[in-house]
Amino acid sequence: MSEKEYKVEVKNLCKSFGTLEVLKDCSFNIKRGEFVCVVGPTGCGKTTFLNTLTCLTEPTSGEILVDGEPANPEKHNLSFVFQEPSAVPWLTVEQNIRFGLEIKKKPKEYIDERVENIISMMALSKYRDRYPHELSTSAEQKIVIGRAFAMNPDLLLMDEPYGQMDIKTRFYLEDEVVRLWETLGCTIVFITHNVEEAVYLAERVLILSQKPASIKESIAIDLPRPRDIASKKFIEYRTHIVDMIKWW
Amino acid sequence: MTNDSELLRQQARQQELKYIKNNKRKMMIFSILSITALLLIWHFVVTFRLVNTRFLESPVTVINTIITKFTDINPDGGYLHQHIIESAKVVWVGFLVGSLVGIPLGLFMGWYRIFDHLIRPLFEMVRPIPALAWIPIVLLFLGIGVAARSAIIFFGSFVGIVLNTYVGVRQTNQVLINVAKTCGASNFEIFYKIGIPSAMPMIFTGLKTAMGAAWATVVAAEMLSASKGLGYMIQMGRMYGEVSLILAGIIVIGIFGLISSWMIGCLEDIVLKWRPKNHEN
């Protein structure tokens, strides 16, 4: 495969805070338009990994290339869905979805069209003038996902976005992400500690090892969508990944 | 799925708000009760001569004084509305200048390290000085006009505004900063899109505290240098031994302090309409 088809190339990435090594020699590539889930034991440095990817923290050594260039949020279209609720409380649903596009200074017509599209896709039109606190947690998370997709990101990073949700809401929002990904097409890196979620969503699962984290294995999930979490193949994948995480 | 549950949520929310509103109405009875009780006790204390009535007059007399003072220029040479306008002018000028200087200063100090290190030591030195201590210097520089009294109000309101604004910006949610950062926003963009709106609730807390302080200082400022104003009127009441005039001044100040706070509260409700309305005040 030629270099150009890789959206993200991570080369020998290391990150340490003082003497604490968090990431050790991580190298992997993510293809354009791929949906990758990263799983690993709690506290293995998943969030550090993402923060380094978005330049919120500087890597100690190694490099991250997006489209062959060093990652830079001002140049690249990155979007981030955080673990914590991150809808801007003083903006309405619509203004929240516009937020990223306005920072990117896109032309107004483009923003209008794009936001309209997202709002109707996510069935948020009834709540467009509401404030986040007036909605439920799952709806608030939908706003954040909508905001992320509205930016038409080259790379969408999601950091355990459904960590605090109940099962029903989680499945609902997972389907939402898959639908948006299939329709709008972008590269997604999705971090989770929920193995079932990873197998349900990903085309490929990266398994991180215990701290200092490095890539332990990369597994392609070859299942048709929509996926059946009770199917035999699904359970095989799941069991395998769980074994990998436990096995050190 | 979400639609239905969202709808239910909204309905529940409306019910809750209705309940809060009703409850507030019920609670208002208690507020009215306490004020009435105070007035009644005051009235009986005076009518049954439980205190020296040379020093205290009944609320009825005081209310009468307030009403007649609108048309009677004696004994201090001013109508009540002239005094009110004079005081309100001083309070609002000092308060507005204090806000115009204090809010930006607090914002910049809270957001930019350099500003913090540059201004903080100076500010900490000025902070403990009571507003009234500035009076002699202010009189020397600005004479005894409105400007001088406003300057004293400025010193009284400015500190609280700066401090609250500063804390407000400092408390900006890091997650929201990261959201803007990953969108590619510059530091200044993050400051005005995230930092300033985050600070708004604390800014209003500061403004309300400062407004209280402003009305408290205006009396002292006017007692020292004025020919009109509620503080001056109280001072005159003392000179002429008219207790009802003093009490009238005190009550009018209370009422106008209340109105000023209420005005800021209304502005707050407009600016912060995005805030959850759970609080019962």
Automatic annotation (TrEMBL), chain A:
ABC transporter domain segment(s): 8-235
Keyword list, A-Z: ATP-binding, Nucleotide-binding, Transport
GO function terms (MF aspect): ATP binding; ATP hydrolysis activity
Matches recorded under Pfam families: ABC_tran
PANTHER family tied to this protein: ALIPHATIC SULFONATES IMPORT ATP-BINDING PROTEIN SSUB, TAURINE IMPORT ATP-BINDING PROTEIN-RELATED
Name this protein carries in UniProt: Sulfonate transport system ATP-binding protein
Species of the source: Ruminiclostridium sufflavum DSM 19573
UniProtKB/TrEMBL annotation, chain B:
Cell membrane found in the keyword field: yes
Protein name per Swiss-Prot or TrEMBL: NitT/TauT family transport system permease protein/taurine transport system permease protein
Membrane topology: Multi-pass membrane protein
TM ranges: 27-45, 90-114, 126-145, 151-169, 243-264
Gene Ontology biological process terms, A to Z: alkanesulfonate transmembrane transport
Primary localization class, coarse: membrane
InterPro entries: MetI-like, MetI-like_sf
SUPFAM superfamilies membership: MetI-like
Gene Ontology cellular-component annotations: plasma membrane
Keywords: Cell membrane, Membrane, Transmembrane, Transmembrane helix, Transport
Biological source species: Ruminiclostridium sufflavum DSM 19573
Location in the cell: Cell membrane
Sequence ranges assigned to domain ABC transmembrane type-1 in this UniProt record: 84-264
Entry similarity comment: Belongs to the binding-protein-dependent transport system permease family.
